[in-house]
Amino acid sequence: MYAVGLDVDTRAYFTAATCAISLNQSLGVTTSSKSFSKFKILNYSTNTNNSFKQLTIWNKQLGISSMFFKSKLTNTEKSLIHLTPRVKSIIIGLILSDGWLQKKGHWNPRIGFKQSLINFSYFWHVYNELAYLCSGLPFLSKAITRGKLIFSLSLQTRQLECLNEIFNLFYLVNKGQIIKTVKPELFFYIDYLVLAHWIMGDGSKRAKGLILCTDNFNLQEVVLLVNILIIKFNINPTIKKEKNKFRIYINEKSLIKIKPFILPFFVDHFLYKLN
Q: N or C: which end of the chain has fewer CB within 10 A?
């Protein structure tokens, strides 16, 4: 896994800067699954030759080829997995919208994320970003919603120590209950990549602007989020009350201001949200 010609200290630096630690194992995986047998678009495969070793580029998308080719890791192997700034921002955007974190007792947390099959392109984009945190492929589920059969795709990551930072940013543990919240420290994590995933997940087109459906947060938390957006992005969002929920409205002028910075992170499927 070391680069040829580098001294010991430099090799150590580059090794520490890898997002998924290969431990001299293959970075490949074959993505065959009964759950996906009906979807030809998912019939991917990558090199699983154990002799193949390479240096992982820091803060770049890794894709499914970065997963360990085994479903269970030792605690030592799990502790070597870390979040790049890119992945950290994506996860925060997911937690602000459709994602969640699970934690039981003293165990490390894990990420959960679910999307309707109609949003497959976005789901697959997210999975390719987070695949190195997962032990396997996404799984297909179905449910009856308003009399209609809806198919969905879900992913769960491993239970990882590196996710505690995000868990502590969004959750409080009170008498054994886990409560989702927004903390002032979120200010230091919000960037355009976070905002892009937040809008893709929970943004809704409204006239020439958009609404962020912050239904899971109370008024005080929504006010905090609005203040973060004002300070970080120099825009002028407002709060609207809809169906007894407090939501954030980003008007046309503010949307035009942030659009060039979030557009590179958008999947085509959700471009309509940016008008």
A: C
- Domain of residue 132 covers 8-165
**Torsion sign (Cα): 12, 14, 16, 22:** negative
Question: What's the N-to-C CA distance of the chain in angstroms?
Answer: 45
Q: What is the pLDDT of residues 160-197, one digit of tens each?
A: 999 999 999 999 988 778 899 999 999 999 999 999 99
* The overall pTM is greater than 0.70: yes
- Other CB atoms within 10 Å distance of the CB of residue 243: 6
H/E/C letters for each residue in 7-28? Answer: CHHHHHHHHHCCCCCCCCCCCC
Q: Which of 266, 223, 221 is nearest to 93 (CA)?
A: 266
The tally of domains found in the chain comes to 2
Q: Residue 254 is part of a domain; what is its CATH number?
A: 3.10.28.10
